[in-house]
Amino acid sequence: MNVATSQEMREIDRRTIEEFGVPSLILMENAATRVVETLAQRRPTLRGARVAIVCGKGNNGGDGLAIARHLAVRFHARVTVWMIAPDPGALSPDAAANLEMAEKFGLTIHWIADGVSVELGQSLASSDIVIDALLGTGFRGALEGGGASAVEAINAAGSAGAYVVAVDIPSGAEADTGNVNGPAVRAAITVTFALPKIGLLLFPAAELAGEVIVGEIGTPPALLEGVRARATSAADVAQWIPARINGRDSNKGKFGHVTVFAGSAGLIGAAALSAESAARMGSGLVTLAVPEGLLTAAMSVANPVVMTAGLPQTPKQTFSSRALDDALALAEKGTAAAIGPGLGGVKDEDLQKFVREFVARCPVPLVIDADALNVLSLEPDRGASLVRGRKAATVLTPHPGEMGRLLGIETAQVQERRLEHVRHAAETYGCAVLLKGSRTLIATPDGRLTINTTSNPGMATGGAGDVLTGVIATLLGQKLAAGDAAAAGAYAHGLAGDLAVLSLGGAAGLIAKDIVDYLPKAIGKCQLESDGIISGS
Ligand SMILES: NC(=O)C1=CN([C@@H]2O[C@H](COP(=O)(O)OP(=O)(O)OC[C@H]3O[C@@H](n4cnc5c(N)ncnc54)[C@H](O)[C@@H]3O)[C@@H](O)[C@H]2O)[C@H](O)CC1
Ligand SMILES: [K+]
């Protein structure tokens, strides 16, 4: 599913209006109709209901005024409009046009420029339905003054039982970041137009939006295809994977062969988890390479389907640069590799040398994770040029701390502008970059962005990242493009975690191995959803 930034949406609207001749007032009318239809579906008692509509001075407020008119005309709703604006002169042209219509239809309209209004609070609290048409995609920053008190009144009414509907996006939330920097509306449902705005998929806005409905408003479909961001769907995953693993002439060789370079003393479990997850994700063959002194340990903890190899090690039992030739030869036998989980000892110069050389020369598609990322970020410029120089596809899978080190910034800075930083990293390192989080983001150097909507807080558990590494390596080894492998991998991994939590009946006790075990179910569910046999969650 495509998702839009506010700027892309403005541009799509402009082209709809100028190139396709659809007047902007028609778009607004369609937007209002979609909200009213949704309300009619969700609230069987809409006829005669008490509805308060809070409108701002921009086009979001214009939508609200059009909604007010339709509710009054078609459903005889008892509508009160609250304009949070100084006077009609402050309104956008389309909002002004709708104000004029609303006035001529005899609707009740109150004006509050700023400050707290007792009447507003009372009106909202005694309404069955409250419509938030205060601010839409034009909003940035934090709400203050009259807008902030209006939002507080809407939320108080919502807490008291009113059904709160947000128009396009909950007011106070930023459409491009999902950030909430001050008071923001908590809605039961959000009706957004043409395409979901990126912010609706990102936290905390995603949580405030409630159920998100996308209303078609007459935008030419071709214009909706031109946006840069998307959210992965089950159908995407099903489409990307089965062509490679469900062919009639299936054989082991077709499923790919992943080689995982991982593990150090005390961290052999990370290696075993990555390898097993590659097997569960459908890799035909999996080889786990560990420092040679840990080979026996690896063989005892790894799943028996996993082949193992021991490579020359440093005195601290991490890979030595002497392991390089063997490692490259092993990698070359497979269709994709992964390096990083549990490597340990990032300060060890011999390990650093191994990682740098391996990354530069590994001839097959490669996932770089965890300590391998930390080695690269010891000298970020050198790390970036090593990755950029690679001949085969690459996916980096940093968590926010690792991303900060890769870019030479603080973790908090990463989290404040996740979209921006993941895109920047993809450009800098010239490869697909997956930034982990409650909404994992994937960027590719061509500027495309994917938002992952599966996963749950139970997955914030040791080893979950190692599992993801094995999953993505499998998809790379089945010849998916780097961005698709990362997107499909994040989706399947998150869904496996969701299914595991459902099955366990709670999130707290989820362990990484559960994610591994639910991978087959997750992929199966994607296929069933894609075939229309079951509906999406
Ligand atoms: N295709 C579509 O999606 C359509 C959407 N429509 C609706 O139009 C709005 C966007 O309208 P716009 O006039 O651009 O912006 P807003 O209504 O969100 O108003 C912005 C308003 O707020 C001011 N502002 C910005 N930041 C702040 C702040 N921190 N504090 C206070 N005020 C702020 C800004 O200066 C503007 O005056 C979209 O969401 C849809 O609802 C169309 O109706 C149809 C097509
Ligand atoms: K709104």
Automatic annotation (TrEMBL):
<dbReference type="InterPro" id="IPR030677">
    <property type="entry name" value="Nnr"/>
</dbReference>
<feature type="binding site">
    <location>
        <position position="465"/>
    </location>
    <ligand>
        <name>AMP</name>
    </ligand>
</feature>
<feature type="binding site">
    <location>
        <position position="342"/>
    </location>
    <ligand>
        <name>(6S)-NADPHX</name>
    </ligand>
</feature>
<keyword id="KW-0511">Multifunctional enzyme</keyword>
<keyword id="KW-0456">Lyase</keyword>
<keyword id="KW-0547">Nucleotide-binding</keyword>
<feature type="binding site">
    <location>
        <begin position="136"/>
        <end position="142"/>
    </location>
    <ligand>
        <name>(6S)-NADPHX</name>
    </ligand>
</feature>
<keyword id="KW-0521">NADP</keyword>
<feature type="binding site">
    <location>
        <begin position="59"/>
        <end position="63"/>
    </location>
    <ligand>
        <name>(6S)-NADPHX</name>
    </ligand>
</feature>
<feature type="binding site">
    <location>
        <position position="399"/>
    </location>
    <ligand>
        <name>(6S)-NADPHX</name>
    </ligand>
</feature>
<feature type="binding site">
    <location>
        <begin position="436"/>
        <end position="440"/>
    </location>
    <ligand>
        <name>AMP</name>
    </ligand>
</feature>
<dbReference type="InterPro" id="IPR004443">
    <property type="entry name" value="YjeF_N_dom"/>
</dbReference>
<feature type="binding site">
    <location>
        <position position="60"/>
    </location>
    <ligand>
        <name>K(+)</name>
    </ligand>
</feature>
<dbReference type="GO" id="GO:0046496">
    <property type="term" value="P:nicotinamide nucleotide metabolic process"/>
</dbReference>
<dbReference type="InterPro" id="IPR036652">
    <property type="entry name" value="YjeF_N_dom_sf"/>
</dbReference>
<keyword id="KW-0630">Potassium</keyword>
<comment type="similarity">
    <text>In the C-terminal section; belongs to the NnrD/CARKD family.</text>
</comment>
<comment type="function">
    <text>Catalyzes the epimerization of the S- and R-forms of NAD(P)HX, a damaged form of NAD(P)H that is a result of enzymatic or heat-dependent hydration. This is a prerequisite for the S-specific NAD(P)H-hydrate dehydratase to allow the repair of both epimers of NAD(P)HX.</text>
</comment>
<dbReference type="GO" id="GO:0005524">
    <property type="term" value="F:ATP binding"/>
</dbReference>
<feature type="binding site">
    <location>
        <position position="132"/>
    </location>
    <ligand>
        <name>K(+)</name>
    </ligand>
</feature>
<keyword id="KW-0520">NAD</keyword>
<feature type="binding site">
    <location>
        <position position="466"/>
    </location>
    <ligand>
        <name>(6S)-NADPHX</name>
    </ligand>
</feature>
<dbReference type="InterPro" id="IPR000631">
    <property type="entry name" value="CARKD"/>
</dbReference>
<protein>
    <recommendedName>
        <fullName>Bifunctional NAD(P)H-hydrate repair enzyme</fullName>
        <ecNumber>4.2.1.136</ecNumber>
        <ecNumber>5.1.99.6</ecNumber>
    </recommendedName>
</protein>
<dbReference type="GO" id="GO:0046872">
    <property type="term" value="F:metal ion binding"/>
</dbReference>
<dbReference type="GO" id="GO:0052855">
    <property type="term" value="F:ADP-dependent NAD(P)H-hydrate dehydratase activity"/>
</dbReference>
<dbReference type="GO" id="GO:0110051">
    <property type="term" value="P:metabolite repair"/>
</dbReference>
<keyword id="KW-0479">Metal-binding</keyword>
<feature type="binding site">
    <location>
        <position position="168"/>
    </location>
    <ligand>
        <name>(6S)-NADPHX</name>
    </ligand>
</feature>
<comment type="subunit">
    <text>Homotetramer.</text>
</comment>
<dbReference type="Pfam" id="PF01256">
    <property type="entry name" value="Carb_kinase"/>
</dbReference>
<dbReference type="Pfam" id="PF03853">
    <property type="entry name" value="YjeF_N"/>
</dbReference>
<dbReference type="InterPro" id="IPR017953">
    <property type="entry name" value="Carbohydrate_kinase_pred_CS"/>
</dbReference>
<comment type="function">
    <text>Catalyzes the dehydration of the S-form of NAD(P)HX at the expense of ADP, which is converted to AMP. Together with NAD(P)HX epimerase, which catalyzes the epimerization of the S- and R-forms, the enzyme allows the repair of both epimers of NAD(P)HX, a damaged form of NAD(P)H that is a result of enzymatic or heat-dependent hydration.</text>
</comment>
<keyword id="KW-0067">ATP-binding</keyword>
<feature type="binding site">
    <location>
        <position position="270"/>
    </location>
    <ligand>
        <name>(6S)-NADPHX</name>
    </ligand>
</feature>
<feature type="binding site">
    <location>
        <position position="171"/>
    </location>
    <ligand>
        <name>K(+)</name>
    </ligand>
</feature>
<dbReference type="InterPro" id="IPR029056">
    <property type="entry name" value="Ribokinase-like"/>
</dbReference>
<dbReference type="GO" id="GO:0052856">
    <property type="term" value="F:NAD(P)HX epimerase activity"/>
</dbReference>
<keyword id="KW-0413">Isomerase</keyword>
<comment type="similarity">
    <text>Belongs to the NnrE/AIBP family.</text>
</comment>
